């Protein structure tokens, strides 16, 4: 499929002509029709178009600090109409990270930042940036509309920038092109036969790549975007929004869907859903069993693979019979329109075609290392850092990260591989393997202060007491001893009701690595303790201190 789809703002402009009185967005701050969306975004576009016409920069980027709401989407659309790219920064980020994100963009002096919550600290303001609120932009009358600017944006121009930390923890700004994004949204519309009656509920934190398609895919097809709440995603509000508005689609990470399925799967709250587009981390279909086996389940589960550097989605797999995937890995599926997926000689997944983005902002060496010339087609390939494998039927599976290797006691191991083994023990429904570096203790010799490999699991089975929890953890370890070498066996095992979830709806591995997340009270191998709010059990197969804490004798 080689056609060139309308760009996002062009398609929404077309929808405004066809459905002027139809509600485009409903949120905590009210609602807006397609006609109003077009007119208000034109006003904002005119402001930015004037600013860009007086600037030497061809592709300016506008950071915008705001929680999700109707006027945020209006502003994003206006920014794109004017030929700018937007970069959403979630206000819930720590101030230092917000500062780091803005610094990553290397904005010039007097650059404008839309700071809707007045969160910019003195150091950022001292850099001589201009700032204004969304309300300020909408309150000003800029005269003529931005109609004349709409055709100045090309498929090769940037439409948005998203931030990804990767393995370093330092935010990298990833640039996405208009052509790649329009290709993805047209794929959703045509491949899944979505219509103007298929409303979508925003289900992910605002700053992440999955929320960009969550916001604009319904507007692209002429349906309504529902924003359940301003601020962090709340599962109760999301479920209520789905039921009360007969929501057809959601785009979310598996962890978000697990919570929906656990809490509301056996009720009729989710019965209107036609498609759940799931991506961002490994999918464990077993976790959705209460929903899948309920009488009201009719939703198509769509497992999607992709990376922020390639417009978020590269492949899709519709699970026509989801029960077939209980206890099994889910294949990645087929490439989306105008996109290619390859395995290199080192089994690394590479993505080509229109999905490939423009690279990293102000990181030319990293861009050159990861974005390579495509030997089969014109354009570039992106080397994802993900390992892939083909089964005997030619289906592609995600096989962990190349950079998920860690060294424990001088031995290399792959954390993703260990997590798969843990899940295959049939005890847990979620698992995370993390490496913890002990705090430096100057009273001990360096050789005695080794890193620890930790397994954290949750289970849908009811754990009645500490003895039962200890048995679950011992069973997991005993099963692992049958399939993995000794250096891959965790030294500590934790059982939780639920694994913690980060702002982007994925398992919060950084939090699990934090000693402060757990308790200072550790026990010997024959004891196990339920710990406060986390409802956490811990078990060590040998009597050793952990994290520098001394176990009770």
Structure description:
- The protein is an alpha/beta fold and 553 residues long.
- It has 2 domains: 8-397, ANL, N-terminal domain (Rossmann fold, 3-Layer(aba) Sandwich); 409-539, GMP Synthetase, Chain A, domain 3 (2-Layer Sandwich).
- The chain contains 15 helices and 27 strands.
- Helix 1 runs antiparallel to helix 2, helix 2 (34-53) packs across helix 3 (70-81) and helix 7 (178-191) crosses helix 8.
- The longest helix has 20 residues, at 34-53.
- It is globular and about 70 Å long.
- The termini are far apart.
Topology:
Elements: H1 8-18, E1 23-27, E2 30-33, H2 34-53, E3 61-65, H3 70-81, E4 85-89, H4 95-104, E5 112-115, H5 122-125, E6 130-132, H6 134-139, E7 158-164, E8 172-177, H7 178-191, E9 200-201, H8 209-221, E10 225-226, H9 235-244, E11 249-252, H10 254-264, E12 275-278, H11 289-292, E13 300-305, E14 315-319, E15 334-335, E16 339-343, E17 348-353, E18 359-360, H12 364-370, E19 371-373, E20 380-390, E21 396-401, E22 405-408, E23 411-414, H13 415-423, E24 430-436, E25 452-458, H14 466-481, E26 492-496, H15 509-512, E27 537-539
Parallel strand pairs: 1-10, 3-4, 3-5, 5-6, 9-10, 9-11, 11-12, 12-13, 25-26
Antiparallel strand pairs: 1-2, 7-8, 8-18, 13-14, 14-15, 16-17, 17-20, 19-20, 20-21, 22-23, 24-25, 26-27
Helix pairs in contact: 1-2, 1-8, 2-3, 7-8
């Amino acid at each position: 499929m080689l056609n060139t789809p309308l760009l996002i703002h062009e398609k929404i402009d077309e929808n405004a002509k066809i459905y002027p009185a139809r509600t485009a967005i409903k949120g905590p701050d009210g609602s807006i029709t397609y006609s109003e969306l077009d007119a208000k975004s034109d006003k904002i576009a005119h402001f930015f178009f004037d600013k860009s016409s007086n600037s030497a920069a061809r592709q300016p980027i506008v950071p915008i600090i705001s929680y999700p709401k109707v006027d945020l989407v209006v502003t994003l659309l206006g920014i794109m109409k004017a030929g700018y790219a937007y970069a959403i920064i979630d206000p819930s980020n720590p101030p230092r990270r917000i500062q780091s994100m803005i610094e990553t963009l290397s904005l010039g002096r007097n650059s404008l930042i839309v700071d809707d919550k007045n969160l910019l600290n003195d150091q950022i303001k001292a850099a001589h940036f201009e700032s204004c609120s969304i309300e300020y932009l909408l309150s000003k009358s800029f005269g003529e509309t931005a109609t004349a600017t709409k055709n100045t944006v090309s498929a090769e121009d940037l439409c948005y920038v998203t931030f990804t930390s990767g393995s370093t923890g330092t935010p990298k700004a990833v640039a996405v092109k208009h052509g790649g994004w329009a290709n993805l949204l047209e794929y959703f519309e045509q491949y899944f036969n979505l219509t103007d009656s298929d409303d979508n509920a925003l289900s992910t934190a605002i700053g992440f790549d999955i929320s960009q398609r969550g916001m604009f895919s319904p507007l692209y097809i002429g349906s309504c975007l529902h924003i359940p709440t301003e601020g962090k995603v709340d599962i109760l509000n999301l479920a209520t929004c789905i039921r009360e508005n007969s929501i057809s689609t959601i785009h979310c990470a598996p962890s978000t869907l697990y919570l929906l399925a656990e809490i509301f799967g056996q009720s009729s709250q989710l019965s209107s859903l036609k498609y759940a587009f799931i991506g961002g981390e490994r999918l464990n279909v077993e976790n959705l069993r209460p929903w899948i086996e309920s009488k009201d389940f009719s939703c198509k589960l769509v497992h999607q693979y992709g990376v922020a550097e390639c417009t978020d989605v590269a492949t899709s797999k519709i699970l026509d019979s989801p029960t077939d995937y209980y206890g099994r890995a889910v294949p990645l599926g087929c490439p989306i329109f105008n996109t290619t997926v390859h395995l290199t000689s080192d089994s690394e997944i590479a993505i080509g075609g229109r999905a490939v983005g423009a690279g990293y902002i102000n990181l030319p060496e990293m861009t050159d290392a990861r974005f390579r010339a495509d030997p089969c087609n014109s354009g570039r390939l992106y080397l994802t850092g993900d390992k892939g494998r083909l089964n005997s039927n030619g289906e592609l599976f995600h096989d962990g990260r190349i950079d998920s290797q860690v060294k424990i006691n001088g031995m290399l191991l792959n954390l993703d591989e260990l997590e798969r083994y843990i899940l295959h023990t049939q005890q847990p429904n979620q698992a995370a393997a993390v490496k913890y570096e002990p705090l430096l203790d100057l009273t001990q010799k360096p050789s005695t202060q080794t890193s620890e490999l930790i397994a954290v699991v949750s289970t849908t089975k009811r754990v009645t007491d500490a003895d039962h929890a200890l048995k679950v953890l011992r069973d997991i370890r005993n099963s692992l001893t049958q399939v993995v070498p000794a250096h891959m066996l965790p030294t500590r095992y934790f059982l939780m009701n639920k694994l913690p979830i980060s702002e982007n709806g994925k398992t919060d591995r950084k939090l699990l690595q934090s000693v402060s997340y757990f308790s200072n009270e550790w026990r010997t191998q024959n004891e196990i303790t339920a710990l406060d709010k986390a409802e956490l059990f811990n078990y060590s197969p040998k009597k050793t201190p952990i994290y520098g804490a001394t176990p009770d004798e």
